[in-house]
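Dear support,

I submitted the protein below through the web form. The confirmation email said the job was done, but the results page showed an empty box. After a refresh the structure appeared. I'm attaching both so you can tell me whether what I see now is the final result or a partial one.
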Amino acid sequence: MGDGGVSEGDVSLACMGAFVHALVDEGVESACVSPGSRSTPIALALYRHPGIRVHVHLDERSSAFFALGLAKATGKPVVVACTSGTAAANLFPAVVEASMSRASLVVLTADRPPELRGVGANQTIDQLELFGRYVKWFVDAEVPGDGPEAGYWHSLGANAATRSRAYPPGPVHVNLPFREPLVPSGAPVELIGPTLGRREVGVRPPLPRGSDVERLAAEVGGVERGAIVAGGLRHGAAAAVDLARALGWPLIAEPASGLRVPGALAAGQFLLADRGFASAHVPDLVLQVGAAPTSRAGLALVAAAKTLVIVDPDRLVADPARHASWTIAVDPGPLAAAVADRVGERVPTVWLQEWRDADASARRVVDELIDSWDEPFEGRVARDLAAALSDGSTLFVGSSMPVRDLDAYMPPRNGLRVLANRGASGIDGFVSTVLGVAASGVPTYALCGDLSLLHDAGSLVWSAKRGHSAVFVVPNNDGGVMFSFLGQRELPEFEALFTTPHGLDLGKLADAAGAGHVRIERAGDLVPAVARAANADGVWIVEVPSDRETNVARHTEVTVAVGAALGVR
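What the results page shows now:
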């Protein structure tokens, strides 16, 4: 290979150096890598670049979810790199979530060169288009030294980063084949050819056109019985609060929308779940902003509306009932502000007052009831945690019951960012994602079930002592309590196949990982325990024991109490 003792490993490292330099030029600051031989040129180029912070993980699934958390927290593209074979397949769950929640990942998989594919070479699988339609772009790169050099590798890196962060953001996949030797000798390599300058790309949804504003103002302006429903949003849309006020409509905002703030309903999910109230308050028009609702009651509301208009800034196709008459893929903040200006401010109506009165009644009865229980109730855990965290904090909430409890019980407030892996709504990779968020430098808290924690226990064991700080609040009901609210509850195989009690000691898991652990027994002890854990730094588990049957019964009591309160107003 070349003159002067230059080896394949030297050329590969030089090409990867040009590639990584282009990534940095395009805004990449972080990379997650896992040990592997074939990926040596990638790992070295990333580790040796002063503009990249490298996070090393033992397993590829954890590495990819950690990168996902960083990407969600920062809004910047993050690299995840691995060796060949099934290592690459382990990235798949995080790639799916990144695709469905619009997070920017640059996925780099090392591979054998073409002559070693399909011949039984060790640790070789077919990695071409491995992630299918879940990536925005795929390229099987040249083998370093076989073709164009500096310009090609710089262009490839720039393309990967810009395509990943361009609107709507998502994962891209670059498959990188290398020949042996993989370890460089240290001989200098001068790549030939020009490099490319940095290119600007649009990273936010398009601004609304004048025709969009006029049409939406005409749609909503004459409607009294309307509602705004806000699902998950990556970017803030505070003007939606002003639009709801101008129209005289209730705003029902999920925590991950960033709109569960003063002006939004405080007990919206309880109103939607109450059959009497919901059937008497079917909106003539629902304006849905962001992703589809999480709760069944929220989905039922948008499906029942006579007219549904969706503002879908991330092109998520947020209409599972196929009910929308119009979907607008624009930035919702400027759209809401422009429409609010156009329609003016409506005098408060009986419609809005009914929602507000019911909301106040439901919030009052819920708070009074759950405050009367001394044992930790999972709904109160969600409420108290969300209310207590300091401004500037990020709360990452797990799927299944935690995200639903937070949606139901969280009071409106400013200053708290709520994130979740709700693209595919899985529980896998939860710990890794949270620690990736923590690596961005923000005060980080998590609310998750015991199964979400255990599903990603390997990441806890590897990462808990690596300088991250995060507090995990874990209601431990010894299994999958979510199924206790579903039809599977009636099956004779319910416990064996669905709730799957594990009987594991979370304190011992924390000890093994080098994480802090505290177990609380009384509801009032939660907030002080979380504060002490946060002040102690490091990774902490605040365990909240919860009896499964009691938890189900308490949820039912709350529902009954709300129904009674709404029925006697």
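Response: this is the final, complete result; the empty box was a page-load delay. The longest strand covers residues 105-111.
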